[in-house]
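Hello Y.,

Per our agreement to keep a running log of every chain we model this quarter, I'm adding this entry. I've kept the format consistent with earlier entries: sequence first, then predicted structure.
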Amino acid sequence: MNIVITNRQRTRKINARLLKKIAEVLLADLKIGEAELGINLVAAREMTLINETFLRHEGSTDVVTFDYADDGRAGSPLPADGARGVTRPNLHGEIFICMDEAMTQSQKFKTTWQSEIVRYIVHGILHLLGHDDRRVTARRKMKCEENRRLAHIAKKFSLAQIGGASKLRM
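Predicted structure for the entry above:
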């Protein structure tokens, strides 16, 4: 597993080591064989540029995922729980997360910005697994899986520790 966390925003301090550990545990829980994953934390200005340039959507957004895999699995979501003992395909992608949007959404939904960041990581990884949120039915299914994975992670980690210096040893 190669997971790289890049912090290009100045809104909040980030414990990149903890975010990396959370992503590793999530990928292991999803039975991902191998992963090349970049997770970029950016400000609204950079996210607006990414969103408008690559997706042709106006303004900022919370998360944008780029799938770099060349294995033909796009558009075919894998079962949420997976078959026991079966390793899922390799992931190769990049997730851009907007810290400003996480702050706004956390206030709107009465959560924490830290849980929003983890939600966006889960959301991006689900996209890399082929989940789609463009149609209403698929969006509901993806949101349910996202909520389930976020709750599972929140039981394993103190998400509040995402804000601040790392104390993990790896």
